[in-house]
Amino acid sequence: MPETATPILEFSAMGVQLGGREVLSPVSLRLHAGEFVCVIGASGCGKTTLLRAAAGFVPPSSGQVRRQGQRVTGPSREVAFVFQDYSRALLPWRTVRGNISLALEAAAVPAAERPARIDEVLHTVGLAAHGGRFPAQLSGGMQQRVQIARCLAQRPQLLLMDEPFGALDAMTREGLQDEVARLARDQQLTVMFVTHDLEEALYLGDRVVALRAQPAPGRPSVARVLDVPLPRPRQQLGTKEHPDFLRLRRELYADLGHV
Amino acid sequence: MNARWRDRAGALALLAALMALWWLAAHGQWLNRAFLPTPEATLQGLVDGLYQGTLGASTAATVGRMLLGWLLASLLGVALGALIGSCEPARVWLQPMLEFVRPLPASALLPLAIALFGLSAGMVLSVVAFGAMWPVLLATLHGLAQVHPRLREVAAALQLSRSAFLFKLGLPNALPDILAGMRLSMTVSLIVSVVGEMIASQSGLGQSILLAARSFQASELYAGVLLLGAVGFASNALLAQAEARLLRWQRV
Amino acid sequence: MFDRVRGAVVPLLLMAALELATRTLAPGSDAVAPPSAALRAGWAAALDGSLWQATLFTLGSAGTGLALGAALGMALGTVLGLSRRAAAVGSLTVELLRPVPSVALIPLALLVFGFGPSMEVAVVAFATLWPMLVLTQAAVRQVEPQLLELSAALQLTAWQRAWLIVLPAMLPRLFVALRLGVAVALVVAVTVEIAANPQGMGYAMMIAQQSLDPALMLAWLGWIGVVGYGLNAAALWLQQAVARRLGAAS
Predict the structure, then answer these.
(1) Which chain B residue has the Cα nearest residue A83?
(2) Which of A67, A142, B206, C175 fits a 20 to 30 Å CA distance from C134?
(3) Which of A10, A138, B165, B146 is nearest to A148 (CA)?
(4) Four-residue CA torsion sign, B70, B73, B75, B81
């Protein structure tokens, strides 16, 4: 992977304690521009906390998070966050276009420019025909695409995704996986993608970070970081039968099982 | 389709039956004629009052008072509710006091208002507006507090300013609650207007029906009550329509 | 505990401010009085019995009116809730009669019953009938359809179904309705006393104002607030107790 001078995202021995409990023991990790990094782990391993720390929602209890070399002290428009519960992250009283517009309004994009940019992202996520509908009229997969579109409208430096397809059925999930992979490639996004689904992590990622469920002194949160040298573009059937895919899957399966 | 027409016919039949009952009771003098005028006498009283008498002016006065008080109350209620609701410390320190005021009858403030301002239309309007403000204020506070944590995080991620959050997320989220509060507020506004007219001798339907009762003019009294029922019905129906239009995103 | 204390701080500060303001800006006024004078006047009324007499009258009228209105409202509401035909037929009449403001009936009640508890009871009954009807109807309609399917599967008789399934399912919502009814009953009773009926708490407050006794007037205003608050709190406690006992979400 090409190494740029400053990583887009860097965790330096970052740990998080919540309510007196250590949720994440110190993690050191770097994300470079254009990388797609997947974070997996069982429930309670702190993967969502890691993502939220990157977003600036959660302050680190020890260590630091840096974005483009600058310390992260709070949320920023440069970082787009895709929530798992998409219906709760959309404004039910605004149409699809209205929801996307929120990101543009927040960034004080001039009103004249907004329709064009909204059209652009709607086209990118394939919802051009549904701009005038309300979220409640859309399926789960479409609602998640609206959220992704809103995040893309921010033109972010970094895209953080928190188990975005967890609440969707398998077929919709696969379709969206391919869409996100394509988006990331076309727009050269840097993505940090959290999931509990091992196959999804391997399918999407350039690298996979496996977290331990119960960190302890001597057993840090990060159990393993693996490179995923599978050929791109990835394919739902072809890639999943690739020998490297199966090998990596077996290696990580053990990590997830014995943590 | 058949069943619906049958239901509609049934509903009208019930209404007709009740009217017939009224007619029978009045003509049969089941109750003293002074208490129960005939439907025709009531209608006559209504027509006479509107065309020759002051019933039209009284209705206009009451409706005007009710609407003005309600508008003031709604504006103040939303403004104050938004102010308090946006500032967490304010909400925390003030909410218990506000909850204490909720069960207080708005009309109970009339004596105090009379003491302070005397018997005048302005006095009545001030009590109407003040009393009708609370349902809207409390509804605004409640609606603002209900913004889902996820939406708050979206707002933080987009770095929305506090006022942008209020106008783009908080108030729209609270709109269903606010509209319900405004409907309740209209009811309070009508009631306090009528009571205010009764005790402060201000022109309006409240005073008209009280005078009619005192002079034992039953048909005028019933005509006035019918008009008040009509005002209540119309204002409620119009608000419900407006609510449905504003909240059409809820029913898709 | 701390929340309660914190909630009382602002009102106490306001009282202190009012005390100061009325003493310095308007001593000996006919219109306003310092809170301390109001407390003294209220205490005096409590000692000489007038407080309790008027309170009991208002509560009695409100209670009786509520009993009548709730009984009729719940009976009609149950019928309309159980039978879709009845609901369709009755809805027009209900929608026409419901928006009549209860205060509009004060002069009518005055005409028929004259001054006294009867007119107040009549107006309160009318005012509480409609919310009780609507809420009872909704409570009956909202019994889980699966519970009704269960009663069919168990082949319960109509009586068994009503007693074992429908009534317990309805009860929590009925107590919610009752809580609303209590609030409405009190508000309407006090309003009737302010507007017309020369008895009870509302009238006592009016008389105090008219005899230019602001301390007593404010004492009554405060007492009405306290009674309202206490009654609502009691009704809320009852509603939540019933909901807990019957395993419903409160």
Answers:
(1) B150
(2) B206
(3) A138
(4) negative
From chain C, pick out residues whose CB is under 8 angstroms from the CB of B96: 3-4, 6-8
Instruction: Choose among B97, B107, B236: nearest Cβ to C11.
Output: B97
For residues B238 and B70, what is the distance between their CA atoms, to the nearest angstrom?
Answer: 14
Look at B158 and A102 and tell me if their CB atoms are within 8 Å: yes
CB of A33 within 8 A of CB of A4? yes
By C-alpha distance, which of A138, A40, A23, A146 is closest to B154? A146
Across B72-76, B142-146, C178-182, which has the greatest mean pLDDT? B72-76
Residues in B 129-148 with any Cβ partner in A closer than 8 A:
148
Interface present between A and B (3 or more CB pairs within 8 Å): yes
Dihedral over alpha carbons C117, C122, C127, C128 (to 10 degrees):
80
Contact (CB<8Å) B115/C31: yes
Q: Which of B153, B164, B252 sits opposite A106 (nearest CB)?
A: B164
CA A16 to chain centre: 19
- Decide if B153 and A76 are in contact by the 8 Å CB cutoff: no
Q: How many residues does chain B have?
A: 252
Alpha-carbon distances of C84 from B72, C79, C246, rounded to whole Å: 41, 9, 27
Closest CB from B148, B168, B252 relative to A102: B168
Residue C124's identity, in one-letter code, is V
Q: Could you tell me where the DSSP H helices lie in B103-170?
A: 110-117, 121-145, 149-157, 162-164
Contact A176, A166 (CB under 8 A): no
Kindly report whether the peptide bond that precedes residue A233 is cis, defined as omega within 30 degrees of 0. yes
Instruction: Give pTM, 2 decimals.
Output: 0.87
Rounded CA-CA distance B169/A93 in Å is 10
With tokens 């898709």, the residue in question is B252
Pairing state between β A158-162 and A62-67: unpaired
Rounded to the nearest 5 degrees, what angle is found at the Cα of A32, between the Cα atoms of A26 and A36? 90
* Cα B19 off chain centre by: 27
B248 alpha carbon, distance to own chain's centre: 23
3-class DSSP state for residue C187?
helix
Instruction: Give the CA angle between residues B18, B19, B25 to the nearest 5°.
Output: 90
Cα C101 to Cα C28: distance, rounded to the nearest angstrom: 39
Residues on chain A touching B148 (C-beta within 8 angstroms): 88
For C165, C169, C172, C174, C179, the CA distances from C246, given in Å and listed in that order, are 12, 8, 7, 12, 17
Domains identified in chain A and CATH numbers:
1-78+156-259 (3.40.50.300), 85-153 (no CATH)
β-strands A70-71, A21-31: how paired? unpaired
What is the rounded CA–CA span in Å between residue B67 and residue B63?
Answer: 6
Q: What is the pLDDT of residues B62-118, one digit of tens each?
A: 999 999 999 999 999 999 999 999 888 888 888 888 888 888 999 999 999 999 999
The per-residue pLDDT for range C140-179, each reduced to its tens digit, is 888 878 887 888 888 888 778 777 888 888 888 889 899 9
Nearest CA-CA partner of A149 in A125, A185, A182: A125
